Amino acid sequence: MPAFSISAYDVETGAVVDTFKSLLGLKAADTVGHRARIRSLTAGGAGAAAQDIQVALRLVRSNNTTDGTATAVTPEKLDPDSVAANLSGKKDYSAEPTVVASVPVWEGSINARGTLVKEWLPGEGPVVDRDSTMLLQGAPGITTAVPLSVAMEFEEF
């Protein structure tokens, strides 16, 4: 199965305590065969002086009807001889998706001075289904926006 990665450096959470902001999104079109399984997530503080702030993280599903406004990210091939990715990426949302699942797929937290790497066993990672977007969201523990570097590795199947 071809594997890819999307990432963003220095994307900020919002500045509202415990309010999630979308940092990175993996989007599958409404096309047969467009789906993927997430293999790993990475998140850590960005910028010259990372702050000592707790940040809640979560993966949550959204539909593609109103999937927000963000900067496009082209998935990078992990194998240079692989075909191009069917899915697309987004980063640094300026307008949030309006329909987001109420139950997260995964939740975790980090201190912005550290790094979190979450890996799933083969075949056990969250699935991004056809015509949906999987969002990595962050929420600060205080009223300060926190700059993060984030990445999502996935395989299409």
Write up what this structure looks like.
With 157 residues, the chain is an all-beta fold. The protein has one domain (3-156). It has no helices and 12 strands. Strands 1, 3, 6, 9, 10 and 12 form a 6-stranded antiparallel beta sheet that branches. A 6-stranded antiparallel beta sheet has the order 5-7-2-11-4-8, with no helix packed on it. The protein is globular and about 45 Å long. The termini are close together. The model has no long low-confidence stretch (mean pLDDT 94).
Question: Topology, please?
Answer:
Elements lengths: L2 E10 L8 E8 L7 E10 L8 E10 L5 E5 L2 E2 L10 E8 L10 E6 L3 E5 L7 E2 L3 E9 L6 E10 L1
Antiparallel strand pairs: 1-6, 1-12, 2-7, 2-11, 3-9, 3-10, 3-12, 4-8, 4-11, 5-7
